[in-house]
Amino acid sequence: MSGRRAREPEVIIGLNAVIVAVTEEVPRLLTVEPTLDAPGVWEDEPAGPPPALPFGPLDPEGDATLQLGLRRWVREQTGRELGYVEQLYTFGTRNREPAERLGEARVVSVAYLALVREESPSGASGARWLDWYRFLPWEDWREGRPALLDGVIGPALDRWAAGAADVSSRSAREERVDITFGRRGGLWDGERVLERYELIYEAGLAVEALWDHRLRRLRGEPEDGAPRLALPRSALPGQPMAFDHRRILATALGRLRGKIRYRPVIFELLPETFTLLQLQRAVEALAGVRLHKGNFRRLVEHGGLVEGTGRLEVRTGGRPAELFRFRREVLRERQAPGVGLPGLRPVTAS
Amino acid sequence: MSGRRAREPEVIIGLNAVIVAVTEEVPRLLTVEPTLDAPGVWEDEPAGPPPALPFGPLDPEGDATLQLGLRRWVREQTGRELGYVEQLYTFGTRNREPAERLGEARVVSVAYLALVREESPSGASGARWLDWYRFLPWEDWREGRPALLDGVIGPALDRWAAGAADVSSRSAREERVDITFGRRGGLWDGERVLERYELIYEAGLAVEALWDHRLRRLRGEPEDGAPRLALPRSALPGQPMAFDHRRILATALGRLRGKIRYRPVIFELLPETFTLLQLQRAVEALAGVRLHKGNFRRLVEHGGLVEGTGRLEVRTGGRPAELFRFRREVLRERQAPGVGLPGLRPVTAS
DNA sequence: CCATTTATGCTCAAGATGAGCATAAGGAGC
DNA sequence: GCTCCTTATGCTCATCTTGAGCATAAATGG
To answer: What is the per-residue pLDDT across A81-131, written as a single tens digit (0 to 9) for each?
Structure first.
C-alpha cells in the first residue's frame, strides 16, 4: 500500500455542531468566537474574527461514540443538553483548519445538526444566536425573490461563466449556474443550498476563498494562483463565517429543508403545543418560502401530523387559535410523515 | 477543555466503500476478504472469515480530500476508477475495528457509496461481487413478503420486546418494532433499512453482536454482559459481514433507496442506452419491490427523465423494445428528478 | 360600531396516481 | 404458416391530491 509512512502522521477528529432554533419566525444558529487561533488570517477584517460554529475535539480514549463526544463538549461548554442530533457530513479537505497550518496534525471534522427549542442566551462566552440567513441571504424567499440574486449574484455568475477557458467549459459552467440557481425557466430548488454556496465560492463571491488561500500560503502548499474576488469586499453577498463553516451551514440548511418534508423534525423546534400558524411560520423559516395557509392546514391536519388539544391561544392578534400538538401515532400510520411532498411550494396569495 | 491529554492518542481515518452495481436484475456489492487480522474473532466461523467491504486508510499527508483518498486506494487495489461517489456516514464507535484491539489507535471510518456500471470481476485478490440481499434478505420484497419476516424475525422481535425490564420499556420496544417493521397496520417503509438492521442486531439476531463482544473482551473494556443470540447460529437471518460492515451496507441501501426517488442516480448503474424494462428492473432491484409497468413508463417518459433513441433492442424475449437514454435537460426542468414521489409503491398485478 | 387581524371551513378545477385492458410485434415449437 | 408465449406500448378511468381562492368567525383597537 503506497503512501503509508513508518511514523503515522497525526490526525485530530473535530466535532462541529450546527445548533438551530427557530424563534419569532427567525431560524437561528448558535455561533461562537473562533477558538483556534489563526494569526494573520483575519488581520484585515474590519469587524474582527467572523462568527464560528461551536467546535470541540473528539477524545479518542474517553468518547465511546462520536455523537457522545459532541454531546459531552456541548454540555461542558454551554451547559446545554442537546436533544435531537443528526450527523451531517464529514469534512476532511486539507488545510481547512488553522491548527494544520502549524504542521501539527490533519484535522477531519464531523459536523452534526442539532435542533433545540428554547433560545436561552447560552452560558458560553462569546456565544450568540444569529439569524442564519445573514450568512446565506439569497436563500430567504419569504419576502419574494431576494434582490441580491439579480443585482449582485446573477451578473457575477455570468462573468464567471464567461471567463471560462474554452467553449465547452463555458457551457458547462452556464448549465451548472442555470440548474443550481433555477435560471432560464428552471425552478429554484430550495434544497440545493450547498451547491449554490459552492458556486458562489468558486465565482469569487465569498471572502473565505481569500482566507483559504492565505492558509495554504502560510503552510507552503502548492498554489494555483491567488483567487480574485469578483466584487469589492463590502459588496459580497452574505456575511462570512470562520474557516469553512459557511459551507457546513449550507450543508445543514439543505439537509434540514429536505428532512422536514418526510420526517416530523419540525416539532423538535416548537414548544409542546402550538398554533397552526406558529407551525407554518417555523416551516416557512426553514424552507425560506411562504406557504398557502389553507393548504398547509389541510396537509398537517388531514395528514394526521397534529391533533387539537381543545385549548386556545388568545394572543394571536386576531381570533384565538386552537393549540395543537404533534401526533406521535402518525409515525406508524404514514410512510414519510413530514410537511410537504410536494406541498412545500411557494405561494402567490396567502 | 477537559478530557485532553498531553500525549495525543492516535487516530486513524479509515475509508470504506460500498461499491454497487446492478446486473441481471441483481444488486451487487463488491466485497473482499477482511484485511485487518482479527485473531480469535472468527475462529469458530464454519465458513471462514466473512466478506468485508473494501477498506483503505486515509493518508493524512498525501490525500488532499477524503474522497480523493478513497479514489486513490480503490484505483491502487482494484485498478478501477470510480465514477459516482457520495459520502454516506462516519462511523466512530470505539472498538469497531480489530486494529483497536491492540491498543494502537482509534479508528474512525468514513463510508462512501459508489455506483458503477460494468461488473468486471475486479483485479483484487479475494474480491467478489455478491448479491447484497444475501446479507439483508428481509429487504427484498420483489417476490412478495419474505417468509423470513413471519417465520423467524417476527417471533424473535416479539420475544425481545416481551423481555424488556419493565412495562414502559416494553411498550417502547413494541412501538419501535411496529414502526420499523410496519406491523399492526403500519406500512413497510423501504428506506428504514438501517433501523431494521439495528433492531435485528439488538434483538440478538445478528452474529456480529457476538464478535463485537469478543473484541471488547479482548481489549478489556467494561462489559455489560455477553449478548445472547436469540436463535442458533444457523437459523439467523441473512449472512453476516465482517466488523460493522453489515451496518454500513444497511446505511447504503437505505440512502440509495431514498435517493433514487429524487435524483437520477439510477442511470449511474445502467448502460448509456437501455429499455424501459431494464430501467424498471434496476429500480426494483434497489427498491426491493415490484412496480406497475404502465405507471412506471408514464412516470419516466412523461416526467421527461428519458428520451427514446429510435433504435431497438431485439433480445427482449418478446416484442423488440425501444432503447432510451437519460435526458439531462430534466435537471433544469424538474425540481427533484427521480423515479418515484410517490410512485415507488409495491404493486399487485404487473 | 367599524376596520383590522387572524382562524377556520369549504369549494372547485386541474393534475397525479393506481389499476387494469387491449393491441402490437417479436420468437419457439409444431 | 399457425399457435402460444413473451414483452412492448398505448389508453382508459375512477380516485386522490394539490393549488388557489372565497366566506365566515372571533378576537382587538380605535
So the answer is: 899 999 999 998 876 665 555 556 788 999 999 999 876 655 566 788 999
Question: Is A185 in contact with B332 (Cβ distance < 8 A)?
Answer: yes
- Render A104-165 in DSSP notation, one character per residue: S-EEEEEEEEEE-S-----SSTT-EEEEGGGTSGGG--TTSS-HHIIIIIHHHHHHHHHT-S
State the Cα–Cα distance between residues A90 and B88, nearest whole angstrom: 9
- Which positions in chain A touch B330 (Cβ < 8 Å)? none
Please give the Cα distance from B268 to A234 (Å, whole number): 43
Q: Do B73 and A1 touch (CB under 8 A)?
A: yes
Amino acid at B104: E
Its pTM stands at 0.91
Stated length of chain A: 350
Q: Which three cell numbers stand for residue B262?
A: 429524487
CA distance A112 to A71: 10
Given this model, what pLDDT does residue A38 score?
A: 60
Which nucleotides along chain C are within 7 A of a protein C-beta?
A: 4-11, 17-21, 24-27
Please check whether strand D approaches the CB of A345 to within 7 Å: yes
Asked if pLDDT for residue B107 goes beyond 60, the answer is yes
B147 has a pLDDT exceeding 90 = yes
User: CB of A349 under 7 A from strand D?
Assistant: yes
> What mean pLDDT, rounded, does chain B reach?
85
Q: Quick check: A341 and B336 CB within 8 A?
A: no
Write the DSSP string, A61-89.
TT-SSHHHHHHHHHHHHH-PPP-EEEEEE
The confidence band for A350, taking pLDDT boundaries of 50, 70 and 90, is very low
Main-chain dihedrals φ then ψ at residue B153, nearest 5 degrees: -70, -50
Q: Which residues of A fall within a CB distance of 8 Å from B62?
A: 3
Question: Chain A residue with minimal CA distance to B185?
Answer: A333
